[in-house]
Specification:
Elements lengths: L15 E2 L6 H14 L3 E2 L11 E9 L4 E12 L5 H18 L8 E12 L4 H9 L3 E2 L2 E3 L2 E4 L4 E4 L11 H13 L2
Parallel strand pairs: 4-5, 5-7, 5-8
Antiparallel strand pairs: 1-9, 2-3, 3-4, 6-7, 8-9
Length: about 180
Amino acid sequence: MQPNNPYSPPTAAAGAAAAAPIAWEAFLPALDARLAHGGFRPCKRTLPALGAERCLRRRRFSLTKFGFVDTFAVVKRFDGPLAPQQFAAFSAEGFRCGMANKIWLPRGFGGTAVVYPLAVVRQLTPELRDYVSQYAPKHWASFEFPAVLELSTGQLACFDRTPMWGGAYYRGFRNEVRKLYLGT
C-alpha cells in the first residue's frame, strides 16, 4: 500500500474488505492506472449483452497453472439494486467474455483463464453479500471469481471460503481481487 495513494485504502479482515467511500469518477481512473500497471490491456472482443465499463486481459505463463494464464478484469456499474440472480448472470456473462478472449490453446492443455467479474453497486444488501460469499461457479481448467464493490463504504465482498478442490488457488484469488480492485 502506498501511503500517499488515496485509492489504496486499508482493508478489513476476513471475506469482505472494507475501506473508505469511493466516488465512481475517482475509482475508474485509479482502476485503469492500477490495471495498466499490472499488465492488463483492453479485450479485443466484448459481448454486447455484458454492458461492462471495462473488460481487460493480462497474459502470463505460470508453471503452477500448467501453461499460459489469461486473467480478466470485467467491471460493470449497477446504479439500482442488484439482485443475486442479476449478479450471477453478470458474472456468467463476464466469464463468457473471458472465454471469448482467452489464448487459443485448449483449457487444461496449455491455456487457462481466470475471470474476475466486479459488480460495482451503490449499496451492498445483506442478501447480496450472503449470496456472493457463497457463490463459486465451477469450470474445467478455468476460474470465475466474482466480487461486489459497494462505493458508499468501499467494501469488497467475494467468495470467502476455500473449497477442497480449489485449495491451491482460492486464497490467491481473494488476494488478487483485493489487489486489482482496491489496490491493497
